[in-house]
Specification:
The complex is a heterodimer of chains A (235) and B (550). In chain A, strand 1 and strand 2 form a beta hairpin. By secondary structure, chain A is an alpha+beta fold. Chain A is built from six helices and ten strands. Chain A has a five-stranded mixed sheet, covered by helices on one side. The relative contact order of chain A is 0.15. Chain A is globular and about 55 Å long. Chain B is α/β, with parallel strands linked by helices and 550 residues long. Chain B folds into four domains: 106 residues, Glutaredoxin (3-Layer(aba) Sandwich); 202 residues, NADH-ubiquinone oxidoreductase 51kDa subunit (Rossmann fold); 90 residues, Roll (Ubiquitin-like (UB roll)); 84 residues, de novo design (two linked rop proteins). Chain B is 43% helix and 13% strand. In chain B, the strands form three sheets. In chain B, strands 10-9-13-11-12 form a five-stranded mixed sheet. In chain B, helix 8 packs across helix 11, helix 10 packs parallel to helix 12 and helix 19 packs antiparallel against helix 23. The chains are: A alpha+beta (235), B alpha/beta (550). At the A-B interface, strand 4 and helix 2 of A face helix 19, helix 20 and helix 21 of B. The structure holds flavin mononucleotide (FMN), iron/sulfur cluster (2 copies) and FE2/S2 (inorganic) cluster. The site of one iron/sulfur cluster (SF4) has 15 residues of chain B, from helix 20 and helix 22.
Chain lengths: 235, 550
């Protein structure tokens, strides 16, 4: 197999063309922070945590959506990137109402872990405290928009893996919301199959099964990738 | 229809027009219509008919003539006399004096109420004299609903020329030689873009004309689409031939019903004539165009969002690469160009790339259309060679600032641009010069501000626009514009301290560098440029920090 040569953080790598920068970094244990990325579904480049610097490119590019190219010189660890990761994390926390101590996902939340990773000790921006709905109309599950970070992993999993397309996005700007069908209560959805994949895909405590209390949520986001691999094998 | 038949048809149309001694053009651009042009047109048509003059006087509606705040406008050809602020009461007088007695009516001539001596031939008025109309050339002189009139104005000659005399490579070489750059905002070299799409081998390729025009106050593309739709259609067809596409989409925003109507009519007429559809002018080249109507989201003007919208999806941008030239509409190589870019193709083919490249500045060839607005005496639609100074635009074309107030700043590029302060009035307006001043050319919005403008509030206004129009997909733009807006509001309310300003500046750079698409990427521009040129207005409203919370 032909390979191409790239440099990441001043080290040389021989890699297969066609892979994304994120894939290559993960294979080589180079840390890249991600949030909207989930193995098994399409990448959208929305959270901007995975931005990297590429020599000769005047913009920062998202590692999850950018393919490696021959002789690319990539930096993942500059001061600028770290500073921006911290601001992004702060904005995530300031946007909606994240109260970890009472959350079902406490201890298992990817957002919380992100906060630890970037060394977040306080947030410099005012909290927006939006009025968000908690939709508990579904017989088994709850959707709490207060904890949603709009990564759209649930939307993509439902569409691409389950094929139901119950979830979608409405509104613009900071008023965007994930919606069920055409903005009907989840319990009244005619497309939801109650498969529960969105629960596992969600990085936070926004979607959870009823009858679970603080810190008890058990998520397996990796099952999405496993499912897709098994399907591919069957072919 | 073949090439010879097109020539014959054109001769017929010319003969028919030459029968008329006079042509009365009633401007039916958006602004004139809103001040009553349609009633004027109807009255003029009725009156000419009633007097039995309809064999020698042709009365037509046209697209925008330019001096929009003087409307409704009526122009007499061949004298080139323009009358302003016309109502139904003026019609009889115009017919009697201009057409029968052959005497111009001084007190309703264009700019009669503001110039000491208004001009009988409008082309001699500085408003027009300093302009060079290429993209807008026949706008305001031809009937946009008549393909015959377009043929008289050399319509479809360029298409005929490329189909019979030039290979796609030669067309692309011509466009490259012209040094035309995209007029949609970023100024990407058009020839290079065409070549990239041409080089991607695929059975299906697409051409898209971007007529979304969401900048507040902008109406350049609207005027071209309403005033000369065939010109854009012909440009798209030539583009299709050059890049190897058989299908085109004109994406026009829903707020422009007249543009949509006229463009759809143009498509119908062109199909009927055989200059659109299968076997164009008897050749093997097939190309058809459909109109897609945008729902009015600013972000849908961004190319990847626009493509998603045509595909029937939510109009949100996608990270590039891949660029549309490689993977665009339905994953196929796609050429996407702005309306004004497309409208510049026909003259370049007709007159040559070299001719076009000689106009303008070394790095920015040709002309640029601006929507001139704000505290200026003569606002409206203008087209000037690249490199025209801001001073010429404001004082010679625009007739100076209202009430002779001092010029304070000009905002270019709308919510994605920045402001140019008085110290730089002599800047030669082209892509590079504006970027050097911290602004951008953008699509051509040009708002003139006098000394009563509050620059912090200007920044807040544009930030509010970006905050509302952010698609909400990526974090920096979705949350960052909201945070920046709130901080700007706090400064406007005199409640901010220097920590707030520091945070605002840090956020601005962050949002600019990390956003997914150009909306977020340029949303901080008005803020950054007012900070650069008018920092004292921020400082005046800021108190010292109470506690340092860093
Ligand atoms: C937020 C945003 C809005 C845009 N709106 C428009 C628009 O209304 N019309 C337009 O032609 N280009 C618009 N653009 C630029 C397009 O993405 C694209 O660059 C352009 O249509 C390419 O055509 P050109 O090369 O002829 O300029 C916009 C870009 C952004 C980021
Ligand atoms: S509910 Fe969860 S998975 Fe869905 S968008 Fe919100 S945070 Fe992401
Ligand atoms: S920069 Fe703004 S408009 Fe563009 S993708 Fe991000 S949120 Fe959407
Ligand atoms: S993981 Fe790449 S942008 Fe979110």
């Amino acid at each position: 197999m032909t390979t191409i040569t790239i440099h990441i953080n001043e080290k040389e790598y021989q890699v297969a063309p066609g892979k994304t920068i994120l894939e290559v970094c993960r294979e080589n244990d180079i840390e890249i922070l991600t949030m909207c990325h989930l193995k098994g579904i399409m990448d959208v480049g929305a959270c901007r945590l995975c931005l990297v610097e590429i020599e000769g490119v005047n913009r920062l590019l998202s590692a999850c959506t950018t393919k490696v190219g021959a002789n690319m010189i990539i930096r993942t660890d500059t001061e600028r990137i770290k500073r921006y990761q911290r601001i992004t994390t702060e904005l995530f926390f300031a946007e909606r109402n994240h109260v970890c101590s009472v959350c079902v996902a406490n201890g298992k939340c990817e957002l919380q872990q992100l906060g630890y990773k970037v060394g977040l000790d306080h947030i410099r921006y005012p909290f927006l405290y939006p009025q968000c709905e908690v939709d508990s109309s579904h017989p088994w599950y709850v959707m709490d928009h207060n904890r949603c970070i709009m990564c759209t992993r649930c939307v993509r999993v439902c569409n691409e893996v389950e094929g139901a397309h119950n979830w979608d996005v409405m509104n613009r700007g900071y008023q965007v919301r994930v919606i069920s069908d055409f903005n009907t209560p989840w319990g009244e959805s005619i497309t939801c199959t109650s498969c529960g994949k969105c629960l596992h895909a969600c990085p936070t405590g926004a979607i959870w099964p009823k009858a679970i209390v603080q810190g008890q949520l058990n998520k397996k986001p990796e099952i999405i990738e496993e499912l897709m691999e098994k399907r591919a094998m069957k072919l | 229809m073949n090439r010879q038949e097109l020539t014959n048809l054109r001769s017929l149309a010319i003969d028919k027009q030459q029968k008329y001694k006079h042509k009365i053009c009633v401007c039916c651009g958006a602004s004139c219509i809103s001040s009553g042009a349609e009633a004027v047109l109807k009255k003029m048509q009725d009156e000419i008919k009633a007097r039995g003059m309809d064999q020698e006087v042709e009365v037509i509606p046209t697209g925008c003539m330019g001096p929009c705040n003087q409307g409704p406008l009526v122009k007499h050809m061949p004298d080139n006399t323009i009358y302003q602020k016309i109502t139904e009461e003026n019609i009889a007088q115009i017919i009697q004096s201009q057409l029968i007695d052959k005497k111009p009516i001084e007190d309703i001539l264009l700019f009669a109420d503001s110039r000491e001596k208004p001009f009988v031939n409008a082309n001699e008025d500085p408003f027009f004299k300093k302009q060079l109309k290429i993209a807008l050339k026949d706008c305001g002189e031809l009937n946009p609903e008549s393909i015959d009139d377009y043929l008289v104005h050399d319509g479809y000659q360029a298409l005929s020329k490329v189909l019979f005399q030039q290979s796609p490579e030669e067309v692309i070489a011509e466009i490259k030689q012209s040094r035309l750059r995209g007029r949609g905002g970023a100024g990407y070299p058009t020839g290079l873009k065409w070549e990239t799409v041409y080089k991607h081998v695929n059975d299906h390729k697409y051409v898209i004309c971007n007529g979304d025009e969401g900048d507040p106050g902008a109406f350049m593309d609207r005027s071209v689409l309403e005033g000369n739709p065939h010109r854009v259609l012909e440009g798209m067809t030539i583009a299709g031939y050059a890049v190897g596409a058989n299908k085109g989409y004109a994406y026009i925003r829903g707020e422009y019903p007249l543009a949509i109507k006229r463009f759809e009519l143009a498509i119908k007429q062109a199909r009927k004539l055989g200059v659109l559809g299968d076997h164009i002018l008897g050749t093997d080249f097939n190309f058809d165009v459909e109109v897609r109507i945008g729902a009015g989201a600013f972000v849908c003007g961004e190319e990847t969002a626009l493509i998603a919208s045509i595909e029937g999806k939510r109009g949100t941008p996608k990270p590039r690469p891949p660029f549309p030239a490689e993977s665009g509409l339905w994953g196929k190589p796609t050429l996407i160009n702005n309306v004004e870019t497309m409208a510049s193709i026909v003259p370049i083919i007709n007159l040559g790339g070299e001719w076009y490249s000689d106009i303008g500045t070394p790095k920015s060839a040709g002309t640029k259309v601006f929507a001139l607005a704000g505290k200026i005496n003569y606002s409206g639609l203008i087209e000037v060679p690249m490199g025209t100074t801001l001073r010429q635009i404001v004082y010679e074309i625009g007739g100076g600032i209202q009430g002779d107030a001092p010029f304070k700043a000009a905002q270019t590029g709308g919510p994605s641009g920045g402001c140019i302060p008085a110290a730089h009035l002599d800047v030669r307006m082209d892509y590079e010069a504006l970027v050097n001043l911290g602004s951008i050319m953008g699509s051509g919005g040009l708002i003139i501000m006098d000394d009563s403008s509050d620059m912090v509030d200007v920044a807040r206004f544009f930030m509010e626009f970006c905050m509302d129009e952010s698609c909400g997909k990526c974090v920096p733009c979705r949350v960052g514009t909201k945070m920046m807006h709130d901080l700007l509001q706090k400064i406007c309310d005199n409640k901010a301290n220097s920590n707030d300003l520091q945070r605002l500046e840090e956020l601005a750079i962050y949002v600019k560098e990390t956003s997914l698409c150009g909306l977020g990427g340029s949303a901080p521009n008005p803020l950054l440029s007012t900070l650069r040129h008018f920092r004292e207005e921020y400082d005046q409203r800021i108190s010292k920090p109470v506690v340092n919370s860093y």
